[in-house]
Amino acid sequence: MFKQLVKRITGEYRLELEAQEKEQAEAQKWREKREQLGSPKFNRQVIRLNKTPFDFPNTQILYIEDVYNEEVNKFIQSHLSEIKKIFASARTIDGEKFDFEFVYIPERVNELKASTNILNDNINYYYPFLENTNPQVVEQNLNSFDTVTFCKSLFKVLGEEGQIIKPGLFRYMGYDFDKDKHVYTFIDFFEPYDNLLEQIELYSYNLSGSDFGGVYFASNHHYKGEVSEDLFLPEDRKMLEKIRKQIDFLKAEGYYKLLLQEVSKDLLPTSTIDETKQVSRLIIDEEYRIFLPDYNNLEITLTPLPKALFILFLKHPEGILFPEMPKYEKELFHIYKHLSKSESYFKMKSSIADMCNPNKNSINEKASRIKEAFIQHFSEDLANQYTITGERGKRKGIQIDRGLVEIKGL
């Protein structure tokens, strides 16, 4: 038995070593090819912003143009699978695998045309304040939507309206911590366009080089002002990621949201990019049920413990430091008594004591449950108005304007 176990472990270890050696060989081959190709001489432009208007993935590369170029579009359409393969197999400057994806807007539009029900669901997810999506209006806008329309909208939200955009590639690089800026780059293809595949391959071999802005894939999830990493446990972050993956259109959230905004533009109020203007009122009724009346009276379901924590934070717009939760134990218990009438007194006391104990993870778990409850119904940027957020080591709080909150039962 022991020999069999050793044999199995040894075999698995050997396979793991072989996989590592293969990966190292492929990474070295990639680096050698990059050195052989050299640095590209594309006309490159950089945009640096204090705040990004959407949650742009830094793994995606978009084709852009401000005037329709028939030659380039025909080439992309006839070589789309090949171009996608080039980016899917691309690596960083160090040879590290990175899941790059080529985004061709007409392809995304065709996907939406083929799934109108999904499209309407997606619009409702991003714009829960809409009473009627009016499929006819959406379909009409979708039929007239193209790369040029998208490109102009994209550069408008980036504050670069009127920019001359030749056929080329656009990418959100990431967050440059040294300069405290979000960085975007876009390049023009060389003319004539008879060697586009070679140009795309050259670009793919230099995706993270310093000649492309010097920003080495800063994570999209560590911006100043966002939820600190200590707020959620690893398993809870996995849960939130699972929800995002279940909503398949979130794989390109920033670009896709902009696309949805354009095809829904005749249905939306003005200034929809300023999400705070579409924040719903929040009402907790006499039975302690949570409703968002301006999102078609949507009910948010929470179990008693997360709901008690939610109400506590609503009652403290100044925010709360997690290490100081013991100060709020009595108040939290008072709220919980109204919500959980079936539990024994001692069990309730124990549950609240755990949630107020800085050395336990109970409060992180309950904060995760609150976030989960909201992002199941609408996008995370709107959900952040209702969930517990805050920087590491600082007060956590719920952002919603308390003038929009009514608690009837307490």
**Global outline:** globular
Q: Could you give the count of β-strands?
A: 11
* Count of discrete domains: 2
Structural class: alpha+beta
Q: Kindly estimate the percentage of residues that lie in beta strands according to DSSP.
A: 5-15%
At a glance:
The protein has 410 residues and is α+β, with helices and mostly antiparallel strands. It has helices at residues 2-37, 70-78, 80-88, 105-113, 116-126, 135-143, 147-157, 196-204, 234-246, 253-263, 304-314, 329-339, 345-355, 362-375, 380-383, and strands at residues 43-49, 60-64, 101-103, 168-176, 181-188, 282-284, 290-292, 298-300, 388-389, 397-398, 405-407.
Description:
The structure is a single chain. With 410 residues, the protein is α+β, with helices and mostly antiparallel strands. The protein folds into two domains: 179 residues, no CATH class; 129 residues, Arc Repressor Mutant, subunit A. The protein is 43% helix and 12% strand. It contains 15 helices and eleven strands. The strands form three sheets. The chain has a five-stranded mixed β-sheet. A four-stranded mixed β-sheet has the order 8-7-6-11, with no helix packed on it. A hairpin with a 5-residue loop joins β7 and β8. α11 crosses α12. The relative contact order is 0.13. About 8% of the residues have low confidence.
